Each structure stands twice: as structure tokens, then as C-alpha cells.
TrEMBL record:
It comes from the Bacteria. Residues 12-98 form the Restriction system protein Mrr-like N-terminal domain. It holds the Pfam family Mrr_N. InterPro entries: Mrr-like_N_dom. This is Restriction system protein Mrr-like N-terminal domain-containing protein.
Amino acid sequence: MTGKLVERENLIMCEALSAMRSLGGQTTRKEIRREIRDHSDEISEQINDEQKTSKKSGVKYHPFVDRFNFAIKHLIAADFINTEDNRNLELSEKGRKVDLVRFDTNRDVRSVSESDGTLKKEASNKTNLDVDDIEF
């Protein structure tokens, strides 16, 4: 995965934890995205709403949603978020207590979530997107 995509996911992880706190700790992915769209100073509404067309398949997609979903998967794998149905999300004790000022996504999340290689493999196996399709 390219550096830009990792940086984008890392930023989304911080913003998602912050949004979940603002929403009371229990919420859905859609509500988190809406909170980020409406209240984030780091991620613009334009980035959140951007829609692109794949050069290879012609399918329209939202790059932010893909990066957002991978960021949430990383947070779940690193035990910052709990979920039973992958729809309803809840901040874990770890997610509630983490200091977002000192939060280091590479140290605190990626070192745990990528330790077995599952998420890294999923990210590289996206079938309908090519890294060349994504512009920032």
C-alpha cells in the first residue's frame, strides 16, 4: 500500500475514535462518517463526499469509504472498537481511554492489526480498485 493511503487511513483512525467519543461510544459506520463529514477539521467534506470512476472497470466508488472501512477494521483488530455484527460499533475500554494527542497509529494499531498479515493482505487484494485509480 502506498504511503498516501496509509497516511489517509491513519488520519481516519484518529478522526473515527474522536467521532465515536462525540457520539457517545456506540454508533454505526454511517454515523461516524457523517460526524467526520460535519465536524472534522482534518478531513474536508469534499474528501468525504468525493466520487470517482475506476479506470479499469468503469465502476463508480467513494475512495474515502474504502479507506474508512479499512481504518475501522484496523481499530477492531487492535481492540479499540468492539463489534458483534460488523455494523454496530462500540468503543472498547482501550478506545475510551486512549489519549488521542499521543495516539500513534503505527505503534498502537498497525503493529497489532497487521501482525498476522490478514488486513495487509485484504488491502492489497481489492478487486475493483487499483492504486492508480486513487488520487488525493
